[in-house]
Amino acid sequence: MPKMVLAGIEIEVDEDGFIQDPDKWNEAVAKALAETEGVTELTEDHWKVINYLRQYYLQFGIAPMIRKLCKETGFTLKQIYDLFPSGPAKGACKIAGLPKPTGCV
Amino acid sequence: MPRTDFGPPYYGDMLPPVIKRNYGKWAYHEILRPGVLKHVAESGEEVYTVRVGSARLLSTDTIRDICDLADKYCDGYVRFTSRHNIEFILSKKENIEPLIAEVKAKGWPVGGTGSCLSNMVHTQGWIHCHTPATDASGIVKAVMDELYSYFEEDKLPAKLRIALACCLNMCGAVHCSDIAILGIHRTPPRVNHEMLAKVSEIPTVVASCPTGAIRPNPKLKSVDVIEERCMYCGNCYTMSPAMEIMDPENDGISLWVGGKVSNARSAPMFSRLAIPYLPNNPPRWPEVVEAVKHLVEVWATHARKGERMGEWIERIGWETFFKLTGIPFTDKHIDDFVFSVPTFRTTVQFRW
Q1: CB–CB of B200 and A104 under 8 A?
Q2: Which residue of A has its CA nearest to B238?
Q3: Which of A82, B86, B312, B350 lies 20 to 30 Å from B121 when distance is taken between CA atoms?
Q4: Residues B166 and B132: beta-carbon distance below 8 Å
Q5: What is the pLDDT along chain B (352 residues), one digit of tens a residue?
Q6: Which residues pair with B40 in a beta bridge?
Q7: Vertex B208: Cα angle to B342 and A24 (nearest 5)
Q8: Contact between chains at A99 and B238 (C-beta distance less than 8 A)
Q9: Interface list for chain A against chain B, based on CB atoms closer than 8 Å
Q10: Which three-class secondary structure string do you get for B28-75?
Q11: Are A99 and B198 within 8 A, CB to CB?
């Protein structure tokens, strides 16, 4: 596994840049990951999505479905794409430090 | 911002002029010879189609070769069929022979129409996928080499559709083909406890199992596999890279028969298990090739004209099918998944 220096700490990432250990995540790491996904500034709206994903993952052990994410944060899917250009999975989940989405993506 | 969401190019812009002129106004068609079709429009205009087999995985150089042929004989128009054959559409009858000669000189076969074996619908295999139990392109090449004459000559009772999928995701058409080649595993997944929670979502992995063989193991922050309940589908590996199931010794191939999708004569059918296991034997898979060839030959000798593999089996009965093909009937053939009862025999009608 390759390693990346994110926010001053060395973290293991996979070939798509998802961090391998969810426990190593913190806000500074999120900022560093955001830069790799074309998000230059994490606004309040960004944090609303990231914190929701993070909280849901810690509580249930899975990433929420898109419908759930939209309903709970109040953003439409289009707005989520405006915030995270590479989308809720590759963009928002990566920045929130969740495991890489699997299945026939 | 780059331009997004503009969809595929409009197909109407790429139709040959003769097709455009007679769109929706075709009177009838004929198969002039295997691989060559003639469509006649109400206006009397005729269009000829030469169908050529392709390997599906093509280099850009090959595609350029196809384009060159299309430029030379078809005014630059060409299409691909839903079984990955190439179709050259000609408005001039005199172009047919020179085109076929040039295609043959390249080593490409002309055929796949009518009661022929058409191309094999197949998948990624070891070329590109991470969940296969076997290869796709290699077996397809080996099987089509052996059955080459069935592609080029019209000598079967009915259409023969062979499909291949390299795992039981069944991408493509294996569940509904006359003969289906399907990659299978025969050993349970090996759980990487250290990695599992980091790279996957445990509830998703548990829910991915069709037989409920996966249980969470909170102590290890991982899952356990109840091996007697596992039938090695590999679905959990799709959901989690920590559930590796590939096993070069035990992975292999199963053969299925009797599926169809058309509504002609009989309703569409699923293909059903004929041979539970054949080994992976690259690069030529002789056991698989031999078994497929045998199934085709037995069907071709016994079926009535126009009778697809599934219709033939339904007429003669499965016990006669196993007798004629000489395939041993085993416990593996008996359905045991959830609602399997309707597949059992609930009658005294059978043949000794």
Answers
A1: no
A2: A103
A3: B312
A4: yes
A5: 678 899 999 999 999 999 999 999 999 999 999 999 999 999 999 999 999 999 999 999 999 999 999 999 999 999 999 999 999 999 999 999 999 999 999 999 999 999 999 999 999 999 999 999 999 999 999 999 999 999 999 999 999 999 999 999 999 999 999 999 999 999 999 999 999 998 999 999 999 999 999 999 999 999 999 999 999 999 999 999 999 999 999 999 999 999 999 999 999 999 999 999 999 999 999 999 999 999 999 999 999 999 999 999 999 999 999 999 999 999 999 999 999 999 999 999 999 9
A6: B28, B46
A7: 175
A8: no
A9: 14, 20-22, 57, 60-63, 99-100, 102-104
A10: EEEEEECCEEEEEECCCCEEEEEEECCCCCCCHHHHHHHHHHHHHHCC
A11: yes
DSSP A44-65: HHHHHHHHHHHHHHHHHSSPPP
Whether residue B198 contacts residue A21, with contact meaning beta carbons closer than 8 Å, is answered with: yes
CA of A49 vs chain B CAs: smallest distance (Å): 19
Is A74 in a helix, a strand, or coil? coil
Cβ contacts of residue B338 below 8 Å, gap of 6+? Answer: none
The C-alpha of A57 sits at a distance from chain B's nearest C-alpha, in angstroms, of: 9
Half-sphere exposure of A2 (CA within 13 A, CB side): 9
Could you say which residues from 164 to 193 on chain B have a Cβ atom under 8 Å away from some Cβ of chain A? 169
- What ipTM does the predicted assembly reach? 0.87
Kindly give the residue spans of alpha helices, DSSP state H, lying in chain B: 17-21, 60-73, 96-105, 137-146, 148-152, 193-199, 202-207, 235-239, 286-302, 309-316, 318-325
Between chains, do B204 and A20 touch, taking CB under 8 Å as contact? no
Catalytic residue status for A93? no
Say which of B169, B198, B203 has its CB closest to residue A62. B203
Q: How far B38 CA lies from chain A's nearest CA (Å)?
A: 41
